[in-house]
């Protein structure tokens, strides 16, 4: 089977398709034929080895190719010993946890554990399942777990138009937020309103949210601790999911640590998140999509074989919603 790989840290042009042995699901694993995949910023952090601190976790044996990508959707083609919850032929979607990802999801086939997948409802296309997986888990866990969101809370999503942000706006409403507001650039204001944002602040026009907020979900980490303090209610929380800038050594970790220190000085709660891949939360996302309560916006589909082009676009940091990769499903029969 073919898989997108890299042998040395590289930019998207250095990613290459290789013929690899067909993977065999071991005990407690299933094999999925990939119908669609999607791209996430963590993927390029891994293949670029940027920031350097990440290389401690992602170092591969010299010259040994690593796979690329976490999110996938497709059909189960083989079941390993001891798996009783799935059958061959079922459609599933999911994501490979970044901490254990060596073989990637941008491939003809992916081996997965049942905890990393959930059934994909008939009405949901493969690309929507793939596109929602990591971003949806992150948005849900940022609101529910790190942010301890309660019905009636006033929530701000900073970076509202990206993969995580546009799902967080919708999920906050699904969880009963009293109001959901968003920060984005001019070209995305309409999309935020369509997704149900009660107020939108265009940072390219110098608009700053006022609040007071119970919870700020932040994917970009551009606001100072002082600014955040001024817009939070007493007891309010900021959950920082990612950061735009950061040095070569710590990357997004640098601004996130600085914010945590600033929050201590200014007296508000600052949390961060490491997304936990789990079946129950994926199943919740699937149910919301099947009932039309949650919709993933896909700015553009690429052929799976053109994943390098999708990464070149993703790395510019301006994607509206998500980018999806669609496999050409081989024809069967006559
Ligand atoms: N901690 C975790 O476990 C975890 C999990 C998933 C993701 N993350 C991190 O979370 C971050 C967001 O991920 P993502 O998938 O949502 O990324 P993404 O889809 O690439 O985000 C792109 C979006 O960022 C917005 N943006 C860019 N500059 C902005 C600014 N100055 N102010 C406000 N918005 C801005 C863009 O909107 P405009 O064009 O409107 O500016 C665009 O819609 C990344 O750093 C990622 O690594 C962390």
UniProtKB/TrEMBL annotation:
Signal peptide: none
Official protein name in the record: NADPH:quinone reductase-like Zn-dependent oxidoreductase
SMART domains registered for this protein in UniProt: PKS_ER
Molecular function GO labels: oxidoreductase activity
Enoyl reductase (ER) domain boundaries: 10-325
Coiled-coil region(s): none
Taxonomic placement: Bacteria, Bacillati, Actinomycetota, Actinomycetes, Micrococcales
């Amino acid at each position: 089977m073919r898989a997108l790989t890299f042998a040395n840290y590289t930019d998207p042009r250095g990613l290459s398709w290789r013929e690899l042995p067909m993977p065999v699901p071991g005990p407690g694993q299933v094999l999925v034929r990939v119908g669609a995949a999607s791209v996430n910023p963590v993927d390029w952090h891994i293949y670029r080895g940027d920031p350097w601190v990440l290389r401690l976790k992602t170092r591969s044996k010299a010259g040994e190719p690593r796979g690329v990508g976490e999110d996938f959707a497709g059909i189960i083609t083989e079941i390993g010993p001891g798996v009783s919850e799935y059958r061959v032929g079922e459609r599933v979607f999911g994501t490979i946890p970044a901490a254990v990802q060596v073989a990637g999801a941008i491939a003809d086939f992916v081996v997965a554990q049942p905890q990393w997948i959930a059934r994909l409802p008939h009405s949901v296309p493969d690309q929507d399942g793939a596109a929602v997986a990591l971003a949806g888990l992150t948005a849900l866990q940022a609101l529910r777990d790190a942010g301890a969101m309660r019905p009636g809370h006033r929530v701000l999503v900073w970076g509202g138009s990206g993969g995580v942000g546009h799902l967080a706006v919708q999920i906050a409403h699904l969880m009963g937020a009293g109001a959901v507001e968003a920060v984005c650039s001019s070209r995305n204001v309409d999309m935020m309103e369509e997704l149900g944002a009660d107020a939108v602040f265009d940072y390219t026009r110098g608009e700053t949210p006022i609040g007071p907020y119970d919870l700020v979900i932040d994917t970009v980490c551009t606001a100072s601790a002082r600014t955040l303090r001024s817009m939070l209610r007493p007891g309010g929380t900021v959950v920082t999911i990612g950061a735009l800038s950061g040095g070569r050594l710590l990357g997004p970790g640098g601004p996130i640590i600085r914010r945590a220190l600033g929050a201590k000085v200014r007296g508000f709660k600052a949390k961060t998140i490491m997304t936990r891949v789990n079946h129950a939360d994926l199943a919740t996302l699937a149910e919301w999509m099947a009932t039309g309560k949650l919709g993933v916006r896909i700015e553009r589909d690429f052929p799976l074989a053109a994943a390098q082009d999708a990464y070149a676009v993703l790395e510019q940091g301006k994607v509206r919603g998500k980018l999806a990769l669609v496999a050409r499903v081989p024809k069967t029969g006559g």
